Amino acid sequence: MLIVSPLHCVLGLIASRAPSHLVSLCSSPDDLADLPPWSSESHLRLCFHDITEARAGLVAPDSAMVGALLDFAQAWDGSRPLLIHCWAGISRSCAAAFILACERNPGREREVAAELRRRAPFATPNRLMVRLADDILGRAGHMVDAVDAIGRGVEAAHGEPFCFPAHRFEP
Asked: What backbone phi and psi angles, to 5 degrees, belong to 14?
């Protein structure tokens, strides 16, 4: 199971859910100052801004970062949760969960997106991350189309933590 969360809920989720792996998607390494230490094998830290196109002074997600996310998740065996967080738990972390579920469920992109919307009405996956993953995974635009089909989530300052299956989208 994947757990998606805003940063302010991470410490409680670590204590209550005991994830084996942690993905931190932040704008600055300083955002992670309050997190407990984790080994580099089980904690992926990617620092980029929640933007969908290049902007002066900001770091956009790129294919190396999305590739690192996909590579990191290969070491996760699913026996305990993988916790993914960003600042608000709405865009970057939701995109990462969508990407990982799509990677494990080729051809089921629309079902994965629909389940994301059902579990997280506020989810607005970062479209650039999704497009980059779509290219890396060779999905011919199906991941982007699936995210476009669910549209923008409801307005929220922060999302709520939610669980999201990584392997449940069987034909």
From this structure: -60, -45
